[in-house]
Amino acid sequence: MRKQARTILAFAILMTSGEVFAQKISNNKEKIMTNNSEQNEQLRVAKSYYEKINSGDFNDDSYFDLFTEDVKIFYPKFGFAEGKLGVKKFGQQVRNLFNNLTFELDKFNFIVTDNTIVVEGVEIGAIHTGAVFPDNEISFGKFCTVFEFEGNHIKRMYCYVDPDHAGQDKEVVDLLKSENKNLIEIEHKTIEAETKKVVDEFYEIQSGKKQGSLADLFADMVDFDLPGNKEKFPWTGKRQTKKEVEDYFKVLYQNIKSLKFDVEYIAINGENAVAVGQLSSVILKYNKVFNAQFVNIFKIRNGKIVKYHFMEDSYRLNEEMK
Fold this sequence. Notes:
Pfam families: SnoaL_2. This is Ketosteroid isomerase-related protein. It comes from Epilithonimonas bovis DSM 19482. InterPro entries: NTF2-like_dom_sf, SnoaL-like. GO terms for molecular function: isomerase activity. This protein is about 40% helix and about 35% strand. The protein folds into 2 domains: about 1-170, Roll (Nuclear Transport Factor 2, Chain: A), CATH 3.10.450; about 185-320, Roll (Nuclear Transport Factor 2, Chain: A), CATH 3.10.450.50. It is rod-shaped and about 100 Å long. It is of the alpha+beta class. It is built from 6 helices and 14 strands. The strands form 2 sheets. Strands 1, 2, 3, 4, 5, 6, 7 and 8 form an 8-stranded mixed β-sheet that branches. A 6-stranded mixed β-sheet has the order 10-9-14-13-12-11, with helices on both faces. Strand 12 (about 270-285) and strand 13 form a beta hairpin.
């Protein structure tokens, strides 16, 4: 009997625990459903705020009813305001600032958590001077607003946006843009100085004015091209590696004797350089002198030659060397 009583008691405890556990799950589900329902309603209110501005309905009771009585708002350069009177004052100031204002709701991003909604959006329109924004060069129409809710009403609305919507604050724009231009110009000049240094060194070594290896000036991988008839002139053709470039110079000077190689000028733009000049060489196999103009194209990156194209009258070279 005692054993049977203990079994019945254990079963009763188990059933009671199960009911309590089931009730907790049910309560949690109801809480989640309630939270989701409340957040959906808050999201609807946030969207409704922008829809009313788009339609011009932001001076009637339905607009002010979106807010709590003690709502707090913030807008850059307007500052802070409280209550529905503060909302009304803000609306009046907005009318002074804009001729028209539209929010592109399809481009909005809503981040919803607890009683807070963060909106990342895009706005377009024209300010009081008639200037249209954004121009997507200085002004971009981007903004972010934080809504805090009490129930289904907006308790706090802080908007973060550049109030110079049309980018007409020339002093600030010039400071920001000129700084960027200065940095770009400095970087460009630095790159050009490096390009000039490598190209000058190349011709100094080639002319014998400076000791060194021409191949060492090249990157491990290179776009190298010297068009020509490779069967007759083995130094012509394409190369891709530093080792192939090293072999090129060996083959070149085994087959020609340079009489003149004058660089007339070098043009540099960033990492690119073009040299133009006159050359005169004896082609040893044919014991003939070849005179020609040349164009030498370089690209320099990280202090190394990554592109080297040498162009001369390869057709005439082929025709004269017979």
